[in-house]
Design goal:
2 domains; Nucleotidyltransferase, domain 5; RNaseH-like_sf; two-stranded antiparallel ribbon; Transposase; IS701-like_DDE_dom; alpha+beta
């Protein structure tokens, strides 16, 4: 049996450095000069050789989190694959970036944040073939986080995941949750009968209502600039508006994180066709982001600046010895 020439660390370092192209061919082209360098097939075989496993991300992330503090945020993002015709895992998903349903791979992430750090702890890739919904993945990640000893200040998530099953699961973990509810969600205020939130008097500072199937919750009705109302709900009846605002701000950390992995690690750019290779590319890209996050937290720079600094060195080397120009012409 031949010894592999390429290992996960080699691919992670390539994803950190490459500005755009994320193919095995490009990875082979940029290898330092060495005897018998790895060919592009070595990188392709790496992605098909590894067993996709989110636990490898946790092995890198656990030293960077405080399990008894911070906030856990759950949300999903669509990895754009607009030209995919034969790539497995690609289906139609809603994209907040495009404000439309697009072709892509849906990535569900569990992020730990304290307001400063953005540490991905777990993830799941939606696969229509395995008959597991995004809410199933949500439950799996919450149970895994509980088994790992997390005791967060709050778990924040989008209204997509606000089913009674998910709310009860977090309550059974002994945790506080904060989520958005749709305006047509039925509640009961002061035993006046079940009504939609939009038809119930909900204060911006919070109103206690009965959520059928769950129990008492506190709902905050936040006015929006366009004249609508956004409803935030929590099982912590003592939560004040300032705390609610702080946790809601923390929830935006996962949006910054999704932008970071797309801009800095090439998580969307794998060209392999098989589901196994795509899963491994995504997992290695998230591990590459962890290295960006640790470096940027230590140095005080942004992810984009760290990425640009790598490219800047290459530009500087070219300017020292430019090799592209107009061809010289002999004159009579």
């Amino acid at each position: 049996m031949s010894v592999p020439k390429v290992f996960p660390r080699d691919y992670i370092e390539f994803l950190i450095a490459t500005p755009k192209a994320c193919s095995g061919t490009e990875a082979a082209r940029v290898q330092p000069e060495q005897p018998d360098p790895p060919a592009h097939d070595a990188f392709t075989r790496l992605l098909t050789r590894l067993e996709p496993d989110p636990d490898t991300l946790w092995a890198d992330a656990q030293a960077q989190v405080r399990r008894d503090d911070g906030v856990l945020v759950v949300d999903d993002s669509t990895l754009d694959k607009p030209y995919a015709r034969s790539i497995e895992l690609v289906t139609r998903h809603w994209s907040g970036k495009h404000r439309a349903v697009v072709q892509g791979i849906n990535l569900v992430s569990l992020l730990w944040t304290d307001g400063d750090r953005h540490i991905p702890c777990d993830y799941r890739v939606y696969d229509k073939a395995d008959a597991r919904t995004k809410n199933d993945h949500f439950g799996d990640m919450i149970r895994t986080a509980y088994a790992r000893g997390f005791a967060p200040r709050c778990v924040v998530f989008d209204g997509w995941y606000s089913s009674l099953e998910n709310l009860k699961l977090i309550r059974n973990c002994g945790w506080t949750w904060l989520t958005r509810l749709k305006s047509n969600r039925l509640v009961n205020l002061d035993r006046r009968g079940t009504r939609a939130l939009a038809d119930t008097a909900i204060a911006a500072t919070g109103t206690e209502v009965w959520l059928p199937g769950f129990g008492l919750v506190k709902v905050f009705g936040i006015a929006t600039p366009n004249g609508g109302t956004v409803y935030w709900a929590t099982n912590d009846l003592g939560m004040g508006d300032l705390t609610r605002l702080q946790f809601a701000d923390f929830s935006w950390a996962i949006e910054h994180y999704h932008r970071g992995i797309k801009q800095c690690t090439g998580v969307e750019r794998c060209q392999c066709r098989t589901a196994r290779a795509q899963r491994n590319h995504i997992g290695l890209a998230l591990r590459a982001f962890l290295r960006f996050e640790a470096h940027c937290f230590a140095t005080g720079i942004s992810w984009i600046e760290a990425k640009t600094a790598i490219i800047r060195d290459a530009v500087r080397a070219y300017l020292a010895r430019p090799c592209i120009g107009f061809p010289s012409h002999r004159t009579a």
